């Protein structure tokens, strides 16, 4: 499937800020699941530099702005050819060893509830893949999709207590639950094409990858109760949402930030 | 000597009543010094230390932040022969530790070979995912390696721990010498003592030698400090001064384009090498702790893309972790194909059930340490502890076994020291500072710490320890 | 050099000059307090000292009545008062500690010595510390540090930033002292030119260590005209506004040559220098001394801001 992406992030500051710097992970990596046909990241007035491919195989670059700024727009646009490999990540070049992803972060810290959830979910499952599917299914059933109930800082344990959340929370819960079972797991940020075209907010998406012996990294999307297929574009990964964030930035100043994100993913008709 | 030597401990000055050769030059000096002169000199030394402002704030103790570390005027002496062996051992260890770091952030051969468990490395808190795949300039992660050594016999040295991040104390090594030379010049005429003053030049050379490839021309190196509230701030200013480098805080640096820049009165100036004295977690809020105010946003991206060198490299801490420590002799064999010259102290990992069992059964004899602790805190010295203290530690170990290791209580050597009653033996350790860059260098000397309390085996300055000048006699 | 280092040096100069100015202010207050209270204007001479120092409200809040003992505590030893002599000396020493490598051992010894001494004084029974001793100590200490900078520091850019701090602060202080005398100290216009007025002017000159210099330069009756001439325009008087601004200008010139660039700071100081060089006392008095001084104080603030923006932030302004 060929997908086109336009992703515009607009920042407005109530008062000008100084020394704005962003670390961006906005470039999909080539692998068997996806091949980048065309891609660009632009930010007017900003300087892009210090780019490198990190150990997890993702391209990271740095945006810096000189002097005082009162706003910024980061525009991402491009086309990607995707394939459906049943969620299995293939041909992705990375050097971080899977056991590294056995560590939990603030967001994926284990709790008694998470341990119980995980143990109950996988009871009776014989294979690694079976356990992973069971876990993902349980998370889908346990964490009801409900925007506005949680925020960016909500942890997996908290989301489980509430019983609802958004894709970020569902993903955190899945990772945290997998970690309690000793399964390496990580957070993936990316884009999702939805056929109805009505789920625009969901076009910027997140899911989890679990490392399974014999298969490698396999994606699970608890929000949509499926494994990533040709509708998914993978941007980058990390321990949790903060670590995998497509944009991490800071600036000097106390001004309130207004943030507007607009993502559009469409299917390109093959000629 | 005022007291008979305790036969349980190796006395570095006396052996069976006879003065050991390295200390021969100190015998007369010690005997000829009347008490009044000694008191006078001690005051003079203290005044000098205070005047140059070398002070030390004790973590978490409050009180006077301008407290001095007690300086003991009685030097600690090594013969040229003793030092030669130590030097070889220290350099060997520093090389192995760096090879290990390059390996575990690269191909991980030592893990693949099954010589060290993968989880111990990859799930270690000090293992930094953000630097996986980096080969820093000259293949050096830890440019300044501080190796803590204790001695238990004429020829028996043990490595207590390695410090691959940013070992402190080198300013004491240099200032102690400076003050001794000022107060007792005749001692330096009579004894041929190898100079340590080359350290600053060697450190600068080391820093310059690891400049990134992108740097053409004379590299600009700076020292990055958390600020003047840090307990080692004096050392930061001292090193900046000795090397003629700028001492910067995070707020003095910023990232623009491909590089890190320093804010100067003449505008931005590119920085090539950062000798940082702040922890990994605070280096860059865009990579590590988002709330860090001490770091430089974007610094890690510049580092990763080869625009700047950070010394020591982020992630170097995985090599000096107390759980990894056990495997350092294995690293020496694996990477260098040599037998380790310096020995490790036998260590029990409380995480392993059988070893934990042994530890819990022998607590009164052992020293128990926190895996990630430092500065002599969170530590149990079995033989010197009350039953209550031991029981308190027992429950801590049972609660979080993976957090503790245990070692036998070592019979730390003693060195004569000036105390209230005159001269008496006190336990000492040694921290030499090995520099690793284009070349590997070790100045002849180090920081000798001394437990000034009678019978105490804890030499940390935060626990009432003092410092001594450390001599290496020239050939 | 590092912008932050330059900033620390700049502030060492400012704090020490401020400490000295406070001591002078205390002295003015003490001498004026020797006069019988003639009522009107500020209730007593001490209050006017507080108004001049800009801490009147904070003082009332903490101490209530403006009696000498409280004023001394407030202006000398009070940690809560950011411009007390203790606060200034502590801050100067703290700035010095941060840039320990940018100053000489001699300067550090003087700064650190001052800090140790004032801490010692804090512990001393107050009855053992007459006001004159406190103010003398401050002047002596300030002179010692300044002397140390003069004889031991390299004449590099760091030295210029230190000197800039001193000169900017001194310009501000002279203007404020002068303004206080003219506007605050004097209870009613009818006193102008009377014996009381003269006494106050004399006190002011004494406090500025300028009484004898003034007599040499002018002699005879003290008049507002002569005072204004002396403290604003006379380049022989080291505390005159023109002298201070010239000094700022010289330092900024040195920096412009060393860095091969001129900045907003040079533009600002040249504007001030131009105005002062052409000013005549009659015009100043016609404008109103108070108005003139307020305008000057404001421009000094802008000058300090321009210096900061041009050199102390690390970005070319």
Automatic annotation (TrEMBL), chain A:
This protein's name: Transglutaminase family protein
Protein origin, superkingdom: Bacteria
InterPro entries linked: Bac_transglu_N, Papain-like_cys_pep_sf, Transglutaminase-like
Transglutaminase-like domain location: 159-224
Automatic annotation (TrEMBL), chain B:
Residue ranges occupied by any Circularly permuted ATP-grasp type domain in the UniProt entry: 75-451
UniProt-listed Pfam families: CP_ATPgrasp_2
Residues in the signal sequence: none
InterPro entries xref list: ATP-dep_Glu-Cys_Ligase-2, CP_ATPgrasp_2, UCP005522
Name of the protein this chain belongs to: Circularly permuted type 2 ATP-grasp protein
Taxonomic placement: Bacteria, Pseudomonadati, Pseudomonadota, Alphaproteobacteria, Rhodobacterales
Automatic annotation (TrEMBL), chain C:
DUF403 domain location: 1-312
Any matching Pfam family: Alpha-E
Signal sequence bounds: none
PANTHER family named in the record: BLR5612 PROTEIN, SLL1039 PROTEIN
Name of the protein described by the UniProt record: Alpha-E domain-containing protein
Organism of derivation: Psychromarinibacter sediminicola
């Amino acid at each position: 499937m060929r997908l086109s992406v336009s992703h515009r992030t607009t920042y407005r500051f109530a008062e000008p800020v100084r020394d704005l710097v962003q670390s961006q992970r906005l470039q999909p990596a080539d692998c068997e699941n996806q091949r980048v046909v065309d891609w660009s990241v632009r930010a007017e007035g900003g300087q892009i530099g210090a780019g490198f491919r990190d150990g997890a195989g993702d391209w990271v670059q740095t945006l810096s702005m000189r002097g005082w700024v009162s706003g910024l727009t980061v525009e991402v646009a491009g086309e990607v050819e995707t394939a459906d490999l049943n969620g299995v990540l293939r041909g992705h070049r990375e050097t971080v060893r899977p056991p590294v992803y056995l560590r939990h972060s603030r967001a994926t810290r284990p709790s008694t509830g998470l341990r119980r959830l995980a143990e109950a979910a996988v009871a009776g499952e014989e294979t690694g893949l079976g356990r992973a599917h069971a876990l993902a299914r349980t998370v889908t059933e346990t964490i009801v999709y409900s925007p506005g109930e949680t925020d960016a800082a909500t942890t997996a344990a908290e989301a489980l207590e509430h019983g609802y959340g958004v894709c970020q929370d569902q993903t955190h819960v899945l990772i945290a639950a997998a970690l309690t079972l000793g399964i390496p797991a990580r957070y993936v940020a990316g884009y999702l094409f939805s056929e109805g075209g009505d789920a625009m907010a969901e076009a910027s998406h997140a899911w989890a990858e679990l490392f399974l012996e014999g298969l490698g990294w396999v994606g699970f999307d608890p929000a949509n109760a499926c494994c990533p297929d040709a509708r998914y574009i993978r941007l980058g990964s990390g321990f949790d949402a903060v670590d995998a964030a497509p944009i991490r930035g800071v600036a000097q100043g106390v001004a309130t930030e207004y943030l507007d994100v607009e993502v559009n993913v469409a299917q390109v008709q093959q000629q | 000597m005022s007291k008979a030597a305790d036969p349980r401990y190796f006395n570095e000055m006396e052996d069976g009543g006879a003065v050991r050769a390295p200390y021969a030059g100190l015998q007369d000096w010690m005997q000829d010094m009347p008490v009044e002169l000694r008191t006078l000199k001690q005051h003079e030394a203290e005044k000098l230390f205070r005047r140059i402002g070398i002070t030390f704030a004790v973590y978490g103790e409050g009180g006077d932040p301008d407290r001095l570390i007690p300086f003991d005027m009685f030097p600690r002496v090594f013969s040229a022969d003793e030092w030669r062996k130590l030097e070889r051992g220290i350099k060997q260890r520093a090389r192995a530790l760096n090879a290990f770091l390059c390996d575990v952030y690269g191909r991980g051969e030592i893990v693949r070979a099954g010589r060290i468990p993968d989880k111990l490395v990859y799930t270690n808190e000090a293992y930094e995912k953000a630097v996986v795949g980096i080969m820093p300039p000259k293949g050096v992660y830890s440019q300044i390696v501080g190796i803590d050594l204790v001695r238990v016999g004429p020829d028996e040295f043990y490595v207590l721990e390695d410090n691959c991040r940013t070992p402190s104390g080198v300013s004491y090594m240099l200032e102690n010498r400076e003050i001794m030379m000022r107060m007792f010049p005749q001692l330096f005429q009579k004894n041929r003592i190898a100079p340590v003053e080359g350290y600053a030049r060697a450190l600068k050379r080391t820093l310059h030698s690891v400049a990134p490839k992108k740097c053409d021309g004379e590299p600009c190196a700076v020292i990055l400090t958390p600020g003047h509230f840090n307990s080692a701030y004096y050392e930061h200013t001292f090193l900046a001064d000795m090397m003629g480098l700028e001492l910067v805080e995070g707020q003095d640096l910023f990232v623009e384009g491909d590089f890190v820049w320093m804010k100067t009165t003449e505008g931005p100036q590119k920085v090539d090498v950062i000798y940082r004295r702040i922890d990994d977690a605070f280096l860059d809020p865009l990579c590590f702790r988002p709330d860090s105010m001490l770091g430089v946003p974007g610094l890690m991206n510049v580092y990763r893309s080869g625009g700047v060198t950070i010394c020591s490299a982020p992630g170097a801490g995985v090599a000096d972790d107390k759980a990894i420590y056990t495997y350092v002799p294995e690293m020496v064999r694996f990477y260098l194909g040599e037998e380790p010259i310096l020995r490790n102290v036998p260590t029990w990992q409380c995480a392993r059930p059988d070893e934990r069992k042994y530890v819990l059964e022998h607590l009164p004899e052992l020293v128990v340490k926190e895996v990630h602790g430092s500065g002599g805190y969170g530590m149990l010295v079995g033989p010197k502890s009350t039953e209550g203290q031991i029981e308190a530690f027992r429950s801590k170990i049972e609660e979080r076994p993976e957090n503790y290791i245990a070692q036998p209580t070592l019979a730390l050597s003693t060195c004569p020291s000036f105390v209230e009653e005159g001269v008496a033996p006190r336990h000492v350790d040694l921290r030499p500072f090995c520099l690793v860059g284009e070349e590997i260098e070790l100045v002849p000397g180090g920081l000798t710490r001394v437990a000034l309390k009678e019978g105490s085996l804890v030499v940390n300055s935060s626990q009432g320890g003092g410092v001594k000048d450390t001599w290496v006699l020239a050939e | 050099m590092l912008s932050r280092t330059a900033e620390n040096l700049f502030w060492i100069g400012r704090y020490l000059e401020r400490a000295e100015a406070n001591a002078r202010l205390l002295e003015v207050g003490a001498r004026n307090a020797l006069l019988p209270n003639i009522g009107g204007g500020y209730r007593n001479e001490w209050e006017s000292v507080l108004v001049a120092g800009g801490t009147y409200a904070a003082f009332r809040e903490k101490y209530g009545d403006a009696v000498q003992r409280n004023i001394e505590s407030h202006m000398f030893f009070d940690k809560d008062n950011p411009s007390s002599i203790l606060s200034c000396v502590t801050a100067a020493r703290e700035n010095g500690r941060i840039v320990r490598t940018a100053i000489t051992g001699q300067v550090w010894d003087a700064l650190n010595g001052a800090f140790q001494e004032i801490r010692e004084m804090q512990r001393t029974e107050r009855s053992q510390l007459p006001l004159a001793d406190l103010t003398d100590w401050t002047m002596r200490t300030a002179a010692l540090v300044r002397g140390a900078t003069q004889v031991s520091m390299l004449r590099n850019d760091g030295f210029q930033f230190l000197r800039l701090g001193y000169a900017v602060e001194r310009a501000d202080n002279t203007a404020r002292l002068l303004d206080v005398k003219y506007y605050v100290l004097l209870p009613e216009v009818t006193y102008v030119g009377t014996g009381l007025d003269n006494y106050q002017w004399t006190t002011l000159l004494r406090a500025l260590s300028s009484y004898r210099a003034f007599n040499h330069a002018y002699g005879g009756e003290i008049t507002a005209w002569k005072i204004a001439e002396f403290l604003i325009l006379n380049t022989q008087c080291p505390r005159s506004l023109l002298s201070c601004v010239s000094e700022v200008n010289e330092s900024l010139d040195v920096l412009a040559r060393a860095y091969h660039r001129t900045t907003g700071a040079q533009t600002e100081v040249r504007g001030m220098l131009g105005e002062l060089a052409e000013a005549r006392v009659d015009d100043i008095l016609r404008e109103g001394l108070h108005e003139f001084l307020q305008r000057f104080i404001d421009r000094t603030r802008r000058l300090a801001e321009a210096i900061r923006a041009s050199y102390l932030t690390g970005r070319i302004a």
